[in-house]
Amino acid sequence: MTDNDNTNGSAGVPGEEPADGAETRRPRVIGTPPPAESHRLLSTDTPETDGDPYAAGPYPGMAHERSEERIRSGVRWAALFFVIAFLGSVAFVAGYVIFQVGDLWQTKWSNMALGGSLTVILLAIASGMTMWVRRVMPHYDVVDERHPLPSEQPEKQDFGKFFMAGAKESGFTRYPLLRRTLMLAMAPLGLLPLVLLRDLGPLPEKKLRHTDWKKGTKLVVDGTGEPLRAADFSSPGGIITVVPEGKEHDLDSIAKSTVLLIKLRPEELELTEEQMNWTYDGIIAYSKICTHVGCPAALYEQSTHRILCPCHQSTFDARKAAKVTFGPAARPLPMLPITVDAEGYLVAQSDFHEPVGPSFWERG
Amino acid sequence: MTTPPTPKALGGVGTYIDDRFHSARFAGVNLRKVFPNHWSFMLGEIALYSFIIILLSGTFLTFWFNPSMHEVVYDGSYTKLHGVTMSQAYESTLRISFDVRGGLLMRQVHHWAALIFIAAMFVHMLRVFFTGAFRKPRELNWLIGATLLILGFVEGLLGYSLPDDLLSGMGLRIAEGVLLSIPVVGTYLMFFLFGGEFPGHDIIPRFFTLHVLLIPGIMLALVVAHFMILWHQKHTQYPGKGKKESNVIGTPMYPAFAVKAGAFFFFVFGVTALLGAFAQINPVWLYGPFTPAAISSGSQPDFYMGWLEGSLRVFPAWEINAFGYTLALSVLIPALGIPGLVFTPLIIWPFLEQWVTGDKRQHHVVDRPRNAPVRTAFGMSGVTLYGLLWLAGANDVISERLDVPLYGTTWFFRFALILGPIIAFIVTKRICLGLQRRDAAAASHGYESGIIKQLPSGEFIEVHQLLTEDAETVAVAKKEVPALAAAVDGDGVPSPGSRSMMGRVRSRLHNFVVKDDIPVGEPHGNGHGDGHGGRPELGEAEAEERKELRH
C-alpha cells in the first residue's frame, strides 16, 4: 500500500481541518448508536421497512454490491477450508495415537505430524474466515465521530469542587496531624519487603577472593576426574582443563576454580621470576574464568599461544602471564601456582594470589 | 428484506445477561467500534496474538517442567546423554522433548512465539514512533508499550535460562558478571539473586516463579490497560480523503472486523505452529547440561539479546582501580549504560518532543514519517545503532563466514557505532525533506504525467495532471510545528521562559526542528491540465522547479 493511494475521489470533504477538531459541517454520523431523533430520520429514509432501522443491514446506508454468484463462491470456499480444518483435527488425533515419541527420529516424526496437522487446522480456519469476510461480507467504511477527550469546563470544575469537599469532610486537609502520621505509617511499609528479602542469599564477605585450591590440592582432569602427572602432560602446545581434586561434580566450585593447563617450551615463557616459580617445566596454569564477565576462556591457538574467550573475544597471551592482547577484558587471567608432589602429580602450591573471574567493586 | 428474528435461545442468553448487567447499550456501542484499515495497524495485533500463544503453550510446558537444580543422572529416552549428571530442570526439559507427545512441538511453539512477540513489539513500536501516533493524547499508552517491551526482554532472558543447558547457563554467567560490575552493591545483588555464589541451587526456581507468575502477571495487566486505553481513545488513522482529527473511518467491529481479527489470530498461530513443526529452535539436547567449565564457540543468544552481546564485545577494556575499589567500566557501560542510552530516549520521547515543539494539540491523524524529519531521522539513527550493535553481537560469525579478521570486525564496529547513527540521521533527514518537496510540488501543480505537448507558440511542455482528491489530501497532510511563544516581546523584552538555561536549550532545539521546514503546499483548484498558468504566489523554489521541467 502506498501513501498516495489513488482512489477515484469525487467532490467532497476537504482534508484540512482545524487542529482542535472543531466541527464546521456535520456529516451524517454512521456507526454510533442512533439517538432517538435519528431513528426517525432513518426510518423516513427507507419507508418500506416498517420501523426496522436495520432492515438493510447493521449500518444503515452502508451497502456494497456483490454479485450473488461471487458471494456463493465465497461461501463454498470458506466451507471447503472449514472442512479441511476439521479433517486436520482428525489427522492431529490420529497422529497423536500413531506416532510415538522416544528417540530423535520418532520424536521428529511425531513433531511433524502434530505440528503439521495443527498448522493445517489453524491456517485453514484463517483462510476460511478470510474468504468469509472478503467474499461474503460487504465491504464498506463507517465514519465514527470522536468525542473530544477533555471534559467540558463546568464538568471539570464541578468534579474538582466535589472532590475537595470530600477531602474537607474527611478531615484530611484540615488536620495536618492526621495527614502526617498517616504518611509516617505508610512510608516504611514499602521498605518492609526489601527487609524480608534479606535472606535471599548470604553476604559476599570474602567469598569471591578464594577458590578451592589449597597447598597440595591435586589437579584432576575435568570430565574424567583423573589426577595428572607432569610427565603425562609433556607435549608442547598441549592444553587441558583441570579442577581441584574432590570437586569434580561441584558446579559452585568449578565455576571459580576451573583451570586451564597449558604446556609450553620453558624458553617460550616471558614471565617474572616469581611467576616462573609458579610454573612447572613449562606447564603453566591459568584461571579458565574470563576476567571480563566469566565465560570459560576455552579456545587456544597453538601457533600464536593466544587464549581466546568465545563469548566476547577477550584474548590473552599464554606466554606472557595471560596479558590481555585484545578485547574487553581489562585484566590478565590469574595464574595458579603449581608444582609436583612426591609421586610426580601436578598439585597447587597455594590458592590464586588474586580473585578470579569478573571484576567487582570490592576487588580493589 | 427485514432483519431476521432473534433466535429464541440467543435472545434468552442476551436477556439473561442484560437483566444482570444492563449491557444492551454498552454492547451496542462497542460492537459498532470502528477500526481503520491499514496494514501497519496489524503489527500490534501480531504482538497481542503471539502473547496469547505464549500463555497457552507455556501453561502446557509447566505441567512437566521441574524447576529444580537438584542433580540427577539421566536415563530417559535420549540415549546419547545416558549416565550424564544434570539438573532436574534440564532433565525435565529433555522429558518434555522426548517423552511427552506434542511436548517438543509446544516447546518450539513457545520459543518461536516469544521471538515473534518481541519482534512484533519492536516493529509496532517503530510504526507508532515514526508516525507520531504516540503524541497527545496517547503518551501514557506509549509508556505502557515501552514497559511491555522491556519486560518482554526480561521475560525472554528468564525463560531461556530455565532449561539449564550449556547455552542458557552461559547467559546466566554473563548476567552474574554484569551484576558484579555494579558499583558498591553489585556483589550483594549477585549473592542475593543467586542465593550465594554462582551458580548455586536457587536461581532456576527463582527465575521460574518470576517467569511464569510475576512478570507475565504484570505484562497481562499492562496489555489489558494498553488495550483499554486504545479502545477508549479510539484508533489513530492515516491522512486521506474524509479523515479528520474529529472522526475515525474504518471497518466496524461487528461483524466484519471481528472475523478479520479472528482470521488474523489463526494466521499468526498457524505460522507459529508451522515454525514449531518444521523449524528447529533451541535444541537443548545438543548443547548438553550446564557446566561453568565448558562452552561451545559461536554461542549466540536469542536475537533480542544480540545487541547487548554486541555492545559487550566491542567496548574497549576500560577499568578503574583506585582507593582499593574497582570500577569495571568495560562491563558496566556496555551492559547497563548502553541499554539506558537506548531506552531512556525511547521512554521519554513523547514528552521530550512535546516540550521542544510546544505542540500540545490532540493528534488523531498520524504523521507521515517524512513530515517530521527530525523525529524520523532520530528514529533511524536509533535503528542504525541497534542494528549495528546487533551485528556486532555476531562478529565472530561474520568473521568466520565472510573470512575477515576477527579483530578487524571489532574495530569496524567501534567506529561504525559512532558514525553510523550520525550518517543515518543526516541521510534520513535529507530524504524526508526531499519527499516533502515532492509532495509540495505535486500538490501545487499536480504530478508529471509523462505527456509532452506542443503549444501553439511552439513551446514544449510536460502535461501535469492533478492529484486525485485522496492523494491531494495526503500530500498536504503535513501539520506545521507551532511556533514557540516569542522569545522577545513587542518591546524587545525577553520573555521570562526563554531566558533561563532550559529556555535557551528549548528554543535552540525548537529551531533545529523547524529550521529547514518545507512550507505546506496549498492544493490547487480545478483545471491546470496544461501545466501552465502557475499561481501568482508561486514560491521561488517551485518556479525554478517548473523551469527545469520545461524542455
Keywords:
heterodimer; A: 364 residues; alpha+beta; Rieske Iron-sulfur Protein; 4-stranded antiparallel sheet; flat; disordered N terminus; B: 551 residues; mainly alpha; Cytochrome Bc1 Complex, Chain C; 2 domains; two-stranded antiparallel sheet; 20 helices; 8 strands; 60% helix; globular; disordered C terminus
Topology:
The complex is a heterodimer of chains A (364) and B (551).
Chain A: H1 36-45, H2 68-98, H3 104-136, E1 142-145, H4 153-170, H5 176-186, H6 192-196, E2 219-221, E3 239-244, H7 251-257, E4 259-263, H8 273-277, E5 283-287, E6 299-301, E7 306-308, E8 315-317, E9 323-326, E10 338-340, E11 346-348
Antiparallel strand pairs in A: 2-3, 3-4, 4-5, 6-7, 7-8, 8-9, 10-11
Chain B: H1 8-21, H2 24-31, E1 34-35, H3 42-62, E2 71-73, E3 85-87, H4 88-98, H5 103-130, H6 139-161, H7 166-180, H8 186-194, H9 203-233, E4 247-252, H10 253-278, H11 284-287, H12 306-314, E5 320-322, E6 325-327, H13 329-357, H14 373-392, H15 395-402, H16 406-445, E7 447-454, E8 460-465, H17 469-475, H18 496-499, H19 501-514, H20 540-549
Antiparallel strand pairs in B: 1-4, 2-3, 5-6, 7-8
Helix pairs in contact in B: 3-5, 3-10, 4-5, 5-6, 5-10, 6-9, 6-13, 7-8, 12-13, 12-14, 14-16
